[in-house]
């Protein structure tokens, strides 16, 4: 709709007729807009090397310096009482952005949801099949290859996507001119993580560790005041196995996670809602989470990732066929 023309008040119009044209001092001030000229909800700053923020000339310019792309693979799933449903997408994407500020690499998020069927009893979770995820990410890589990108770092932010992410990496390597790695695995040798001394409390989904990372990366989205320790219920044989898992027994660890956290339809009785009343899969109270602990975790991963990327750039300089 076009704006309506301004109409002078009747008295001002009469004065102009009587006195001729009004001076600049006599003219009424222009009307002040009642609403802001731009979206009042927009708070985002433009991020270097972040594909959704870039123009095509900026992408073209980046291709002169780098043929690498980080593709975060996240999820939209419940994260207990305190965490945002977008935790896995948001955290992996924010980590990728931090990496891209320290070494030239494109950050190209493709999808928000991942494979999360075992969280579906909690409202808000969205799950896609492994086949859908694999097809969408592979086709996105084909687009990026057409533009000139050649090396791909798949950054998986959700455990349920592990097999799918590895299959995407393999398809890229087997079926295209591109080269791909899983960034978590690639960066691990460059990290400074110390092996824990003795048994550790079980702390996985939406627990202290993950909530700490969110407090650092997306602090205004975490409602720590709503957090509480979950009541955990396992099938009897998994409950008996848990101490061995906490002690680091490799066989127990493998068997336990092969069965735990699976969709209700499998009949294993290990979907999230069947195991935990809050959605947190942890023996600890998430209120123990801190942004300081999250920062240490994130900085360790970001630094390790940058070291790997720089090593790859040295091993295979850009432009080598």
Give your account of this protein's structure.
Helices cover 40% and strands 6% of the residues. Helix 3 links the parallel strand 1 (68-73) and strand 2. Mean pLDDT is 91; it is low at 2-24. It has a domain at 51-191 and 298-312: Creatininase (Rossmann fold, 3-Layer(aba) Sandwich), CATH 3.40.50.10310. Strands 2-1-3-4 form a four-stranded parallel sheet. It has helices spanning 10-19, 56-62, 87-100, 130-147, 162-175, 183-187, 208-217, 236-246, 250-259, 272-275, 291-315; strands at 68-73, 106-107, 151-156, 179-182. It has eleven helices and four strands; from the N terminus they run ααβαβαβαβαααααα. 35% of the residues are buried. With 321 residues, the chain is mostly helical.
**Order of H and E elements:** HHEHEHEHEHHHHHH
Radius of gyration: 26 Å
The average pLDDT score comes to 91
Largest sheet: 4 strands, parallel
Q: Give the spatial strand order of the biggest sheet.
A: 2-1-3-4
Count of individual beta strands: 4
Question: What are the low-pLDDT stretches, counting only 5+ consecutive residues below 50?
Answer: 2-24
Alpha-beta classification = mainly alpha
Global morphology:
globular
Number of helices: 11
- Fourth-tier CATH superfamily name of the domain at 51-191 and 298-312: Creatininase
What is the helix fraction of residues, given as a range?
Answer: 25-40%
Determine and state the CATH class of the domain at 51-191 and 298-312: Alpha Beta
Level-2 CATH architecture of the domain at 51-191 and 298-312: 3-Layer(aba) Sandwich
What amount of the residues lies in strands? 5-15%
Amino- and carboxy-terminal Cα gap: 56 Å
CATH topology of the domain at 51-191 and 298-312: the name is: Rossmann fold
């Amino acid at each position: 709709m076009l704006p309506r023309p301004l109409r002078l008040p009747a008295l001002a119009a009469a004065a102009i007729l009587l006195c001729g044209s009004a001076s600049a001092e006599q003219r009424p001030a222009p009307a002040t807009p009642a609403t802001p000229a731009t979206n009042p909800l927009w708070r985002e700053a433009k991020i270097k090397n972040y594909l959704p923020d870039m123009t095509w000339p900026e992408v073209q310019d980046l291709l002169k310096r780098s043929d690498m792309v980080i593709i975060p693979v996240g999820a939209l799933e419940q994260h207990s009482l305190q965490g945002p449903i977008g935790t896995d997408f948001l955290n992996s994407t924010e980590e990728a952005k931090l990496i891209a500020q320290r070494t030239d690499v494109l950050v190209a998020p493709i999808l928000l949801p991942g494979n999360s069927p075992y969280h579906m009893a909690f409202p808000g979770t969205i799950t896609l099949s492994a086949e859908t995820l694999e097809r969408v990410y592979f086709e996105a890589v084909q687009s990026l290859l057409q533009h000139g990108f050649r090396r791909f770092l798949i950054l998986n932010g959700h455990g349920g996507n592990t097999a799918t992410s590895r299959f995407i990496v393999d398809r890229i390597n087997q079926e295209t001119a591109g080269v791909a790695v899983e960034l978590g695995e690639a960066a691990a040798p460059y990290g400074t993580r110390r092996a824990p001394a003795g048994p550790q409390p079980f702390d996985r989904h939406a627990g202290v560790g993950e909530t700490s990372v969110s407090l650092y990366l997306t602090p205004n989205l975490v409602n720590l005041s709503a957090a509480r320790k979950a009541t955990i219920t396992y099938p009897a044989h998994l409950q008996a196995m848990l101490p061995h898992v906490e002690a680091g027994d490799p066989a127990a660890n493998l068997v336990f996670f092969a069965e735990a956290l699976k969709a209700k339809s499998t009949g294993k009785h290990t979907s999230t809602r069947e195991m935990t009343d809050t959605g947190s899969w942890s023996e600890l109270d998430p209120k123990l989470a801190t942004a300081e602990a999250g920062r240490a975790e994130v900085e360790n991963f970001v630094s390790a990732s940058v070291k790997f990327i720089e090593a790859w750039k040295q091993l295979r300089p850009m432009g080598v066929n």
